[in-house]
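Aim 2 progress update. The chain analyzed this quarter is reproduced below.
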Amino acid sequence: MAATPTSATQNFVPVKEIRNGVIILKDGGYRGILLCSSINFGLKSTEEQRAVTLGFQSFLNTLDFSIQIVVNSRKMDLRPYLELLAKKEPEQKTELLRIQLREYIEFIRSFADQANIMTKSFYIVVPYAPKVEVAQAATSFFGAKKTAATPETTFEEDRVQLEQRLALVAEGLSGTGVRAEPLGTEEVIELLYRSFNPGELENPIRLEQ
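Predicted structure tokens:
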């Protein structure tokens, strides 16, 4: 029987499920995502730029695991903003203000048609590979059976390990002036939806090893 388009698409998506903001991959790996603030590096003085560069270098040197830095570029949709301006036209007290508002709306619309106005978001993907638990109960030297960890217990323990990595990355970035916050479940779902829809995203996140 031929696969449906939905099932065929799912075969290419490495995500098994998302729990408590944690991405669980089909291969058993975990991923956490930090949303990072930006800094205007070009407006800083030479000394400030040097401090940021050295801080970032120091941050990378403290890591004993790999990370993925992702820049999410999307074309900004100005239609809601233009609709809001159009609704404010009748509220203007004078005809001159209404004319100026209409001219401003046309200017924004024309500018948006001629140039790609992009919005950028910055993320860091932090991986964690949990240890493989033995499915069967093991027998100790004295003959007593060890109780194997349940999947829920294993997930909670591994989630703590991943959160420690996320906290380490966030703390390291703070030294460069960058704020980083972990994404929750709904935010991760929204980001992954955009990531696997190429028409809406310039730089899709890759979750493979």
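The chain has two domains: 15-73+119-200, 77-116. Residues 96 and 102 are 10 Å apart (CA to CA). These observations will guide the mutagenesis experiments scheduled for the next reporting period.
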